[in-house]
Structure formats: C-alpha cells, structure tokens
Amino acid sequence: MLTFFDRRTVHVGLTCALGALTSMLGCEPSPVVIAGSCRAESDCDSSESCVDGRCRPRRPTDAGPMIVDSGSPSVDAGPYARPFCPSFPFGTDACDDPEVVEHLQMRDSDDDGLLDFVELCDHGTDPCDEDSDGDGVSDLVEVGYGSDALDPEDNPRRRGDFVFVVPYSPPSAPPIEPDPTRDALSFGTDLQKVDVYVTIDTSGSMRGEMDNLRSSFRSTIVPELASRIPDVWFGAGRFEDCPQASCPNGMNNMQDMTPDVDRVQAALDTLTNTCGGREPYYQTLWLLATGDTSSYDGRVQPIPRRCDDAGTIGWPCFRPDAVRVIVQAGDEPMARESGGCPSRYPGGTHAAAAAALDGADIRYVGIDSSASSTLRDEMRRMAIDTGAVDATTGEPIYFRIPSDGSGLGEDLVRAIVQLTENVPIRVDARADNDPGNEGGVDAVEAFVLRLETNTSEASVEGRLCTDLPTGDDTGDGFPDHFPRVFPGTSVCFDIVPRPNQTVPAIDEPQLFRATVRVIGDGFTPLDEREVLFLVPPRAPTLE
What we know:
Elements: E1 10-12, H1 22-25, E2 32-34, E3 48-51, E4 54-57, E5 67-68, E6 75-76, H2 98-104, H3 116-123, H4 139-145, E7 162-165, E8 183-187, E9 193-201, H5 207-226, E10 231-239, E11 251-258, H6 261-269, H7 281-290, E12 300-301, E13 323-330, H8 334-338, H9 350-359, E14 362-368, H10 373-385, E15 389-390, E16 395-396, E17 398-400, H11 408-421, E18 425-433, H12 443-447, E19 448-454, E20 459-460, E21 463-464, E22 481-485, E23 491-497, E24 510-520, E25 524-535
Parallel strand pairs: 7-25, 9-10, 9-13, 11-12, 13-14, 14-17
Antiparallel strand pairs: 1-2, 3-4, 5-6, 8-23, 10-11, 15-16, 18-22, 18-24, 19-23, 20-21, 24-25
C-alpha cells in the first residue's frame, strides 16, 4: 500500500539507538513534534516556518546542521532533523535498512506530496525533485494516476487525460483551491456517427436508377463514406404506389439501419418494378420519420416496425445519437403523386412530411432524375425545411442526375459529404460521472464547477481554440456553447473545478473519474476527454 504525504511535514526527533547511524547523530532522544496549523512564526518550532497557515520545514541553503528546539537544551540533531535535500545522503540500498526507512517515511523532502520512502523505495523517483522526469506533471499526480513518473513521454496529458488535485477541506474550514484552478480541453468536431437511409421510387421509369444504386452501393457509396465517417450505418427502402392499390410494394422498409453492408446490398438486389401508380413521396417520408404504421394495411411492410430497441427513431430504427439522413430518389412531382393517395393515410403533404422529419432531427436530400422544375423545387424546399443547406454556398443539398440513373452513387456520396462538412452544428460540452467511482462518489457533482467555452486561439494539444461566437444558455455570465460550428473545426472548453469539501481524505490517495463529452446539435457525440480528480491522502499520524 502506498503512503502519500499531503504536503504537511512531520518532524521526528531521533533516538541515538540507530546502530551504525549513532556516530552521525551524537544526540540525546528528542520528542516527537508534529507540524500543525499556525498564524505566526512563533506557532512553529525553530526548524519550521509558518507558510499558508501551516508549519513547514525550513529549507536552509547551507549544509550545516539544523538546530531543533525540543524544549530542552539545543542539540545538533544531525541530517535527519530536516529535509534531506539538497544533498540527499542515501541510495536505494537504504530501503533495506529498517532504521533509515523509518526516517524516510517521515519526510517529504521535495514537498510534492510523496514521502521520501515512497519515491526512493517504491517508484525510484527523485525525493529532491517534485517532477522527476521534467515533463511538467508532478510525481504525486503521475503516481496517483498510474503513469510512469520517470518517463517524460508518459503522463496523463500524453494519454489525453487531465488530472486535478483536489485537497479536502471540511465545510467549516476555508476551501483549498484545486490544482490547477482551470484547464483547457481541446476537441474535434468531426461527425462520428451517421445513419444514411436510401428510399427510391421503384416504378417502371426508374430502372436505370435502381441498377445504378445496386451497382454503386458496395463499390462507391460504402467505401467513400466509410473513409470519412468512423461509424456509418445504412438502410434501404422503396415506394411505388398508394397503399390501397393492388400493389404489394406500396411502401416497404426493406432493411433497417445496420452496419452490415451485406444485408443492405441484399435488400437493394431485390429491387424490382412490379407496379406503379401514384407514388407516395410525402407519405413515405412521414412514415420513415414517425414509424407509425397504424393507418396502413399489409401493402406497407413491415407492420409494426422491427426495432428491438424502443429508443430508436422512426420506421427503420435510426440510432438516437447518430446524424440521420434520408436520401430520396425519384422522377415525379412529389405533391401531385402524393395527393393521389387517399387522405386517410397520414403525411400526404409537404408540411406534414417536413414537420415529421424535422421533429425527428432527420435531414432530407433529394436526387432527381427528371427534367421537371416542379420536382426540383419540391426537393430543394424539403432540404431547406429540414436543415440540409450547404452554408458555404447557401444552397440546399440537392442533386439532379440523367434519366438513365448514371451518377446516382457518386452524387449520393457528394450529398452526404456536403451534409457532414458544410452544414453547421451547435456544439455543447457535458460532464458525465463515471459510475464506477469508488464509494458511489459523483465526480461531476463533487468536483466540477462549470464548463466554459475557450476562444483564446491558443494551441492546446495540437488543436486551435478557435475564436467562434458563443452562447450562454444558463445565463450565469459564463459562455457554455458554440451555436454554429462547421464540423471539423477544433474547439476548446475550460473545465473549472470545484474546491473539494465533500470527499474527505483517507490514508490512501483517491482517484475519481469523469468524462467531458462534446455533443453536436444536442444529441450526437463528437469527441470526449477523460478527466480525473485526485484527492491526496491525509497526513500520517504517529502513535
């Protein structure tokens, strides 16, 4: 078990019964003196100074003996009566000498919070240097965290983590400031999770488009998007006729959202032209967004939706934390076709379909293989109303392809790339407790005061703290989010820790974890950092 030292030094008078060390001492036993609180120098013994309300050992620059006032005639107490630095007299072989070990266990010569014994005998760190490897992170933090305190290339920062030292002070005492009092965390904002659902008109005029979608899915769409998006899922479906018509393929969700490319390809391979009348463009979008199949009969499949997880969204089970996109390919005017279906089927207007998509945070992209300005305008309007607008051009994300369907796969990729790079998102930071923390301690509640945006343009961990407009949702005077960020822009948040007045120190160091997550548009994860809070142990007591 490690023994740590909470920056409070214990001074022990030595006996002369130290075997081989007696000749070094030449002294009579002196009583134990334990450093405590102070208001003035007079509250401390002569070997100590009153620093920040505590008696701390003096650091003489000469190598002469320190005189300890033991309440009896002054005596030369030898080298053990003071911190051993700057001329530390021991090597690692001292760890085998019980008498020397006893004294190493009473001192923290570099005042870093680790006893000399722990440094010399347990970790091989320098008892005279609070940062043995010179990497800017103290030995206390590295030992408590678990990184190699002798390797400047290994520390919490190098591993992408952040450690705050949060000494305990009881509520009745003045709070002790954490160390550091704030820290900047840098984050990427590239979209990490995207669900792409393709629904295509399978009426007789769309044979070329279906062939192109089938052939380009595995060869073009999947590899291109997977190379840009770490976690992309696909789904596929069709719409061909109003549900009351004598057509088994009125509206079909053929494959729910899945990372399994083979399953999606298999669904696309079954696309055929079997009928075709009034094509329910709007009703299909409404049903995909809501998942409400209650108004439909067997010509719409599946009924009900097949989602195992009730928390998923819509008919094809979109993931709740993914950016959700529906790509609709067709060649007939949307309102005209949808209006030919009975009104008892919901979602048959632009307004109803757009509201359903927007309510489910689904963005719409249209791929138009007609020569119709009507369909063009309808698809562009739906993109605008669901937020699928390229902010670099101000144009809705919409593509027109030849009537033979050529280029459908390539344009689908371009559409998703535009959507994931050129549509700004809101960026917030959120601190989440690690439920595995010892004793059920909620690290966020105990140690996190707030998260603030940082627009300093400083470089943090190789990323720029970009100067962007900020917002303050809580109204506390501290900006807490970025309202408009292009994905891929680096951002920073400062974490401001709270003084620890709720988690008492114990005999061992305590390490508690939390995760700061950066979230896009309130639901999709962008990046995260682990943050750790180290509660130093209480000072050892002598029996």
